[in-house]
Amino acid sequence: MDRLLQILKRIDGKGYGAYKELAGTYQFADFTLFIDHVQGDPFASPTRIRVRVAGEKAGFPPQLWASKPRRIGLQDYLARQVAVKAKVYCGGVRGTGKSGLLLIDAGGQEILERTALVISAGYVEARLSVGLPADGRRIKGALAAKMLTEELAGIVRASLFYKRLDAAEVLSFVQLKEDQQFIREELVRRKLVAFVADGAVLPRESGASDRPMKGQAVPFEAPPGLAVEMDLPNRGTVRGMGIPEGVTLIVGGGYHGKSTLLKAIERGVYDHIPGDGRELVITRCDAVKIRAEDGRRVEKVDISPFINNLPFGKDTVSFSTEDASGSTSQAANIMEALEIGTSLLLLDEDTSATNFMIRDARMQALVAREKEPITPFVDKVKLLYKDKGVSTILVMGGSGDYFDVADLVIMMDGYRPHVVTGRARELAGQKPTGRRPEGGAAFGEVRHRVPLKQGFKPERGGRVKVDAKGLSTIIFGTAAIDLSFLEQLVDPGQTRAIADILLYLSRKYFDGQNSLSQAIRKLYGEIEEKGLDVVSPFYGKHPGDYAMPRPQEVAGAVNRLRTLMVR
Questions:
Q1: What's the longest Cα–Cα distance across the chain?
Q2: Is residue 268 domain-shared with residue 335, that is, in the same domain?
Q3: Domain ATPase of the ABC class C-terminal spans what residues (predicted)?
Q4: Residue 146: CA atoms inside 13 Å, Cβ hemisphere, count?
């Protein structure tokens, strides 16, 4: 520490570039500071540092991180503690640009595997970003010394030592993560696709906030026909609604909770923190939300299970377009989800193309089958489960035609679910639609594509330029990838990881031999072995701002790269 103070005293008042001298390792009384990368300008990306506490000094009982779910839970908890203490010890921006900031990527409502914090038998390590302070472009050495010694030491000692934390709270957090993983595995064993616990709070605070609604929210209660009980390792017996495999329809009047339930199920692919309200809303981890996406590029996707006989003989077995329509984009989104792997599709009529979802009897009578290239989803959804084992949960408020193909119908009434499958089938028998099924005898083929390396061009101006901009945009060379329609992408850290994953895939696994699904599967095998750090240009030092993305969103980003080329 003394050496660090001496350097800061010597460079005080000098040009900002003198901060580069700080790169290196510094030993404090009870932790080690690594300054891995020093920013070159007060407006540039902040300096990357790591603080490491030896395992015996940190003092965390091994049982708190003995399994992968517990380890992820403990790492998530500790990153949040660091973030809380940083706000206590630091006063925000204090100078030019990012001066004075001290940040850690601690996340939002989801518990995600992150690179911001690492715990092992040997040490606990937090990876932070620091805005080294400046006045204009002159070094503020005294403030930097305060930040890197006093403030940082206070944060470390208050958050990374077990004896300074609430032991009961720590245990409760990691036990929740363990229980969530148990439910996730239990879904497969019981042939369920989703579980929503009694007492869950599904509505959110607002359209701009993912926090739970306070006061007016109706706690969820499972209807008798779908109630299941699970004996969790820590929490004991919990009751909730278990949605079985097959085709499930969610119906009800407007503003009664249909889309709110679907949104909770959609986000149930992730675990949530205590107090979120959705802690025990758990969905198959490979579930994919499907929607129409007008204008997206599609590269050689086989959409023939849904669309055939396009005008002018346009190919739909290897369909490409620079500007997809609602129906072709929704068909492509489904086929891409099947290509990467999924056991559950989630759809809401509000974000679907009407002509893709249904073609009623009157329209069938007016427009002959040979003149209509689209086979509507209502005629394929049952075959999708029968042939591919892929279930569907669908919100539908405007068409009863889906009563004929639904295995389960849930009606939302005042945010309370009711099983109305029998009544729906009765109505289907009493009031037949008169429409003719158009789906054929089988769903159709799912074809795998091989990404070609020449479709990935990360250079701009002669230099590699790969970056993430917030949650929904990746810059890859000269191309901007729009991820705004990937509704299960929830954290900017995931987007940052995906950006570097694309570069890593293009250099190592997109070799003209691996299919997209094979390449991504091999990548995740490597991540499982070496950690998410492996995709970082800072591998071995400070890849501290990644959150684990799902393979489905990685594939979604690949498919939305406008320079993508496949065989």
A1: 88
A2: yes
A3: 168-449
A4: 12
